[in-house]
Amino acid sequence: MELVVFDVKGKETSKKVNLNDEIFAITPNTHAIYLDVKQYLANQRQGTHKSKERAEISGSTVKIKRQKGTGTARAGSIKSPIFRGGGRVFGPRPRNYGFKLNTKLKQLARKSALAIKAGKEAINVVEDLQLDAPKTKSMVQMTKSFGVEGKRVLYVTADIDKNVYLSSRNLQNVQVVNVNDLATYDIMKASAVFFSESSVEGLDKLFKL
């Protein structure tokens, strides 16, 4: 799969790059994508929810009324769940929602996500963005040049570039990630995926091709 390299102003250059067909031209496995996204979202959950059950409620343990002859149901404790202020039945407890997935499945999911975006022509390769200082205006101008202003944009870099990251931090719909941190969830969420020219080489290493 061959793509033209664009400059940051959205104009075509004379350079072209070959994207590996083993990544961008495979038949997408939607179930693998589902599992990887499910794991990603599960790992985002704090799992710190907690409610008190009847054993943890502060209150008297004295039997609140006699067993028989009251005309109502028997009750032994004010901490019972049927009373206001009582403990909760089977309430939430702190837990870890994360689960494990095989490495090969996660790689298949990322390949499938990239293949889907390639099929929708939502993959672009641009020249490396060189910034001497953080400039949000530069990142905004790039999104305008490609006609994706206001849409969810994923910009993939080869190395961690602090200036590029800081330039996008104030933009709600623009996310900058290192190629090694590429996640299926980020790819699927983006309307357009931009690879810096130098990051393309890192894809083969990421997928061990």
TrEMBL record:
<comment type="function">
    <text>Forms part of the polypeptide exit tunnel.</text>
</comment>
<keyword id="KW-0687">Ribonucleoprotein</keyword>
<feature type="region of interest" description="Disordered">
    <location>
        <begin position="46"/>
        <end position="77"/>
    </location>
</feature>
<dbReference type="GO" id="GO:1990904">
    <property type="term" value="C:ribonucleoprotein complex"/>
</dbReference>
<dbReference type="GO" id="GO:0003735">
    <property type="term" value="F:structural constituent of ribosome"/>
</dbReference>
<dbReference type="GO" id="GO:0005840">
    <property type="term" value="C:ribosome"/>
</dbReference>
<keyword id="KW-0699">rRNA-binding</keyword>
<comment type="subunit">
    <text>Part of the 50S ribosomal subunit.</text>
</comment>
<dbReference type="GO" id="GO:0019843">
    <property type="term" value="F:rRNA binding"/>
</dbReference>
<comment type="similarity">
    <text>Belongs to the universal ribosomal protein uL4 family.</text>
</comment>
<dbReference type="InterPro" id="IPR013005">
    <property type="entry name" value="Ribosomal_uL4-like"/>
</dbReference>
<keyword id="KW-0689">Ribosomal protein</keyword>
<dbReference type="InterPro" id="IPR002136">
    <property type="entry name" value="Ribosomal_uL4"/>
</dbReference>
<keyword id="KW-0694">RNA-binding</keyword>
<dbReference type="InterPro" id="IPR023574">
    <property type="entry name" value="Ribosomal_uL4_dom_sf"/>
</dbReference>
<dbReference type="GO" id="GO:0006412">
    <property type="term" value="P:translation"/>
</dbReference>
<protein>
    <recommendedName>
        <fullName>Large ribosomal subunit protein uL4</fullName>
    </recommendedName>
</protein>
<dbReference type="Pfam" id="PF00573">
    <property type="entry name" value="Ribosomal_L4"/>
</dbReference>
<comment type="function">
    <text>One of the primary rRNA binding proteins, this protein initially binds near the 5'-end of the 23S rRNA. It is important during the early stages of 50S assembly. It makes multiple contacts with different domains of the 23S rRNA in the assembled 50S subunit and ribosome.</text>
</comment>
